[in-house]
Design goal:
Chain lengths: ~240, ~240
């Protein structure tokens, strides 16, 4: 692995993104707009907006970056750029960490805008520091990127790649504690939720919502998500083959 | 003369189909070698084996003294795939600079390569907005940046205008004169005459491996297309 190549790959991916202004616009505006929608939905429901909006600040970057990365990586495969890159001095991890870094940075911008909209315009309130919300959102985005890179190895077409969203993302969303608190679910469902990284992200966000200072549970949750992201990136590297049939 | 590429008894299966049936050939260093054959004959598979991205069933491929695909070769072998493999959503210059950075080379080296393939005027354009011919030249330019000792080009001249095609072939020979080895595939016979040496491939078997002059002499015809036909008939008689 080479830092120089990793960073130049990150720069290349960000440059690709910059040429696609509509995607940039969607990336930045959509989470904030969806939060606004939530705000009006829960206009008269007291603290429900605070609870749900906080979880959504972690969920949006995860879902969006998963989708964007699956398609981006699939494009590398189908246009032949991946085959070419693998005949150059670029290492597999240079490419994967390059993606993680590039979309992680994009997620940081996205999360900052969404968090600013939520706290300044929509009156979201947390006991803990706003910066921690952004941090958890970015780590979640990197998890989305890592899982997207990994899953794209199993997709041959864009149709298949998009189908991994319901397979990988929606179960995590259903079980993360947003709809039903995890403690109230059947034991076996709790066990499933316990091995899903998004559950820990939601838990960490709830901790920021409830406690003025960062708690051990929050740091544990964040560490689990970051660890899952690293594991997914390394697994993705294992699916990248220099030689193909 | 030392050889840049040595292929021995190479057998490749793709899916359940055998694509290469025991190919053996060698490519002398510092020459322009044409890999000629109809579409579907196994040219791309042979090329992929040489750059080390093809899973092979049996046989060996040695490139610049190392097994094909070795880490050391990633700095010395340039590869241009048949479909232009450059980023359509980047400009020509951004593409070239990215590929230059992979070899630790400067932006100036990238700009020189763009000029070399005649794209200096289009450097600021998005690759996606270029014509097919320009796009494949952008892809070629990106492979030439690292000054590779071996350039493997899969149909680089398809869709180029005749003047540019002549320029590209002149460029290939200039590179060969500096010591670079070039393996260039084509399915157009009129390009065969521009090569120092020809490998003729059909249905996964090598049916000719010689200089154009020797092939013309052996088959008793001046026309390489006719010579190819002659060799095909010979090989079919041997098989029958």
């Amino acid at each position: 692995m080479s830092l120089r190549i990793t960073f130049s790959t990150t720069g290349r991916i960000l440059r690709q993104l910059r040429h696609d202004r509509r995607t940039v616009g969607l990336l930045i505006a959509v989470p904030a707009l969806l939060l606004t929608l939530l705000y009006f939905m829960f206009d008269n429901a007291g603290s429900t907006f605070d609870r749900i909006a906080l979880v959504m600040l972690g969920v949006f970057p995860f879902v969006i970056m998963f989708l964007v990365t699956s398609i981006a990586m699939l494009r590398e495969r189908t246009t032949g750029t991946l085959e070419r890159l693998l005949t150059t001095p670029l290492g597999k991890l240079d490419l994967l960490f390059g993606y993680g870094l590039a979309f992680g940075l994009a997620a940081a911008v996205q999360a900052t805008v969404a968090v600013a909209a939520a706290f300044l315009l929509l009156g979201l309130d947390t006991a803990g520091n706003v910066g921690l919300v952004v941090l958890i959102a970015v780590v979640n985005a990197v998890l989305g990127v890592a899982l997207g890179l990994f899953c794209s190895a199993f997709a041959r077409t864009e149709f298949q790649a998009v189908q991994f969203l319901p397979v990988v993302v929606i179960p995590q969303l259903l079980l993360c504690g947003l709809f039903v608190p995890r403690a109230q679910m059947a034991g076996w469902l709790q066990a499933v939720a316990d091995v899903m990284p998004l559950s820990y992200a939601v838990e960490a966000l709830a901790q920021v919502g409830a406690h003025p200072d960062p708690t051990t549970t929050m740091w544990r949750g964040l560490t689990v998500v970051a660890g899952a992201a690293i594991i997914a990136l390394v697994l993705a590297a294992a699916t990248l083959r220099r030689r193909t049939p | 003369m030392t050889s840049a590429i040595e292929v021995r008894d190479l057998v490749v299966d793709r899916g359940r189909r055998r694509v290469l049936h025991g190919i053996g050939c060698s490519v002398p260093a510092g020459s322009v070698v044409g890999l000629l054959g109809p579409s579907g004959s196994g040219k791309t598979t042979l090329i992929r084996a040489i750059v080390g991205v093809q899973i092979v069933k049996s046989g060996t491929v040695t490139v610049l003294g190392e097994p094909a695909g070795s880490a050391a070769l990633r700095r010395t072998v340039g590869y241009v795939t048949q479909a232009p493999s450059v980023y359509a959503d980047l400009t020509v210059r951004e593409n070239a600079r990215y590929f230059a950075s992979l070899y630790g080379l400067s932006a100036a080296a990238a700009d020189r390569a763009i000029a070399d393939v005649g794209l200096a005027d289009a450097a600021g354009q998005l690759v996606g907005n270029l014509s097919g011919g320009q796009r494949s030249r952008a892809s070629l330019g990106c492979a030439m940046i690292g000054k590779p000792r071996l350039l493997v080009l899969d149909e680089p001249t398809v869709g180029q205008d005749p003047v540019l095609r002549a320029d590209l072939w002149a460029k290939f020979h200039a590179l060969a004169a500096e010591g670079t080895t070039l393996l260039v595939s084509s399915h157009v016979m009129d390009e065969a005459g521009r090569c120092d040496r020809l490998l003729l491939i059909r249905e996964g078997r090598l049916i000719g491996d010689d200089s154009p002059a020797a092939i013309r002499a052996a088959t008793g015809t001046d026309d390489l297309e006719a010579a190819f036909l002659h060799l095909i008939r010979d090989s079919e008689q041997v098989a029958a």
